[in-house]
Amino acid sequence: MIYKALSVRLSLMVVCEIALLLLVSLVVMFYFSRQTLKQEAMHNAEHTLEGTVQHIDNVLLSVEQSAGNIYWDVLSHLQEPDRMYTYCRRLIESNRYIGSCTIAFKPGYFSGYKGFLACAHKDSNGVIADERDNQQKVLDNTQYTEQEWYTIPMETGHAIWTNPQKQAIVGNEVVTTFCLPIYDRSGECVGVMAADLSVGLLSRIIRTAKPSDNGYTVLISRNGSFIVHPNLEKLKHQMVFLPNVQDANQSIQEIAKAMIAGKSDFKSFEKDNEDWHVMFKPFLRAEIPGRTKEELNWSIGVVYPDDDIFGDYNLLLSYVLAIAIGGLLLFYLLCRLITHRQLLPLNMLTTTAQHIAQGHYEETIPDTRRDDEIGQLQENFQQMQRSLSTHINTLEQLTNALQKHSKELREAYQLAQEGDRMKTAFLHNMTNQMIAPSQAIKESVETICTHYHDISQQQVDHETDIIQQEGDKIIDLLNHLLQSAEKENGKEVTHE
Fold it and tell me: Which residues lie below 8 Å from residue 284, measured CB to CB, with a gap of 6+?
C-alpha cells in the first residue's frame, strides 16, 4: 500500500519530517528544562539547607545561651551544693528544648562525699523532677566520671556538644548534650554543667519545615549517629551506616562516609526501587561573640525523592509525548485526506491513460478549474488526448484509403495477369494458326526452288497461288493481331 499509494508516501514523508523536527525540539527543550529543574532543585536544596542550619543553630544557640546564663550563677555559688538542684530546674524551665540538666563535680570536691551530681529532668507530662530525695545515693555515685559528657570537658576545658547517646533518666531517650566546664576562682576545672537536648524533639521541630512533600532533613554527628531524622526509629538505632553489613546500600554508605568526612556535594542514590537525591554539607554554627568556636564536625543534608524534583516534569513529559503522538496521528490522517483529495485528478488521469492504452482513444477527460501544476497537467493531458484522437482518426482514414487503393491495385494486377495470360494464349493460338500457312509457303517455295527447271508453268502458278493464299492467311492473322493490340491499347488508355 505504501509503495502503490502516492498519498500515503507523501503523508508519511511529511509526518516523519514533522516527527523528527518535533522530536529534536522536544529533546532539546526537555534536556535544558531538566537541567534547569535540577539547578533549581539544587538552589532550593541549598536554601533549604541554609534555612535548616539556621533553624537548628538557633535551637542550639538558645540552649547554649540558657546554659550560659545559669552558668554565671553557678560560678557564684560553687560552695552551695543544694542550690545546684535549683539551677538544674531553672535551666529546664528557662528553655523548652532542654529535657534534662546535670551539674556534676569531680570526686572529692565536697568534703565527706565521693562525688556530687545534681540532676533534674522533664517527664513526658512536662513535670520537672530532680534527685533531691536520693541525694545521699547521688553523692556517693562516681560512675558519671566515666561518661563522655563529663570526661571530655574535664580533659579539654572547652564547651562541647556530645554525640547522640541514650539518656537513662527518661525512658532511654536519645539526646545530645551541651557541656560547660566549671572553673573555680583558682582557674581549676572542678565540674561540668550539662544540658540535654532530645534529638527526637529536635527532629520533630525540623520535620515541621519539610523541604518538599516527601523530602526530609538529616543531621549526622561525627561518629555517624543521627541527630535529626524524620524516622524516630533511626535515632534509636543511632548509626547511619553499619560497615559490617554486607547487603547495605553501597550508594548510601558512600554518601554517609562523605558526610562524615565533612564534604559538600549533590549525589543521587536508589532506595526501595526509587531514585533519590541528597545535597549535604558540613554543619557550621554562626559566629557570635562569646560563643564557643569548638568544631562540631556534624554534617547536614537535604534528601529529595526524584518525584519531588522531576515528578511534574515527568508527568508533563508523558502528557507532551501522548499529545505529540496523538497529534502526529491526527496530522497523518489530515495529510492523508488532503493529499488523497489533491491527487484525485492524478488517479483519474492514470485510469484514463490505462483506457487510452487499451485503445479507447475517445475517452473523455473533464475540464478543471485548478491553476496549479495538477490542473495544468490535466489540461495538457486533455489537449494530448484530443490531439491523439484527431491523429488516430486521420490515420484510420488514411489506412482505409490505402486499403481501398491496395484492393484496387490487387484487382488491376489480377486483371493485368489475366490479360497477359489471354495475350499469351491468343499469341499462342495465332502462332499455331500461322504455322500451317508458313509451312505451306515454305514447301511451295522449296518446291519451286528445287524443281525450278523441271516444274511446269502450271505447277509454278499453282505453287504461286498456294503461296499467295497462305500469305493472305498470314496477313489476315497479322491484321487481326494488330487490331486486337490496338483495341487493348485503347482499353488501357481509357482505364488510365
Answer: 53
Claim: this prediction has a pTM higher than 0.90: no
What letter would DSSP give residue 163? Answer: P
3-state secondary structure of 105: strand
At position 428, the amino acid (one-letter code) is: H
Which residues on adjacent β-strands are paired with residue 119? 102
Task: Judge contact between 105 and 116, C-beta under 8 A.
Answer: yes
Output the tens digit of pLDDT for each of the chain's 496 residues: 555 566 677 777 887 888 888 888 888 888 888 788 778 877 877 888 888 888 888 988 999 999 989 998 888 888 888 888 889 989 999 988 888 888 888 887 777 667 778 888 887 777 777 766 445 444 555 677 778 888 889 988 888 888 887 664 555 677 888 999 999 888 889 999 999 988 888 888 777 767 677 888 888 888 777 788 777 666 655 555 444 434 456 788 888 888 888 888 888 888 878 888 888 889 888 888 878 777 788 888 888 888 877 777 778 888 888 888 888 888 878 877 777 777 677 777 777 777 777 776 666 777 777 766 667 776 777 777 778 778 888 888 888 888 888 888 888 888 888 877 877 777 777 777 777 777 878 777 777 787 777 777 777 777 788 878 878 877 887 787 777 777 766 655 444 4
The answer to whether 220 touches 209, Cβ cutoff 8 Å, is no
- Return the number of other C-beta atoms located less than 10 Å from residue 227's C-beta: 27
End-to-end CA separation in angstroms for the chain:
68
How many CA within 13 A on the CB side of residue 119? 21
Amino acid making up residue 391: H
Q: What's the grid cell of residue 332? A: 497523518
Contact 203, 238 (CB under 8 A): no
Give the C-alpha separation, 131 to 113, whole Å: 16
According to DSSP, the β-strands at 189-198 and 165-167 are unpaired
C-alpha torsion angle, residues 131, 133, 135, 138 (rounded to 10)? -50
Please give the sequence-ordered ranges of beta strands (E in DSSP) within 73-225, or none if there are none: 98-105, 116-122, 128-130, 160-161, 165-167, 173-183, 189-198, 216-220
Residue 381 near residue 349, CB atoms below 8 Å = yes
Angle at 346 between CA 341 and CA 352, to 5 degrees: 130
How far is residue 115's CA from residue 133's CA, in Å, rounded to a whole number?
16
CA 496, CA 492: separation in Å to the nearest integer?
Answer: 6
SS3 string, 3-31, reads: CCCHHHHHHHHHHHHHHHHHHHHHHHHHH
Kindly report the CA angle at 330 between 324 and 333, in degrees rounded to 5?
Answer: 140
Pick the closest to residue 183 from 75, 76, 293, 290 (CA basis).
75
The β-bridge partners of 46 are none
- For 433-464, letters b (16+ CB in 10 Å) and e give ebeebeebbeebeebeeeeeeeeeeeeeeebe
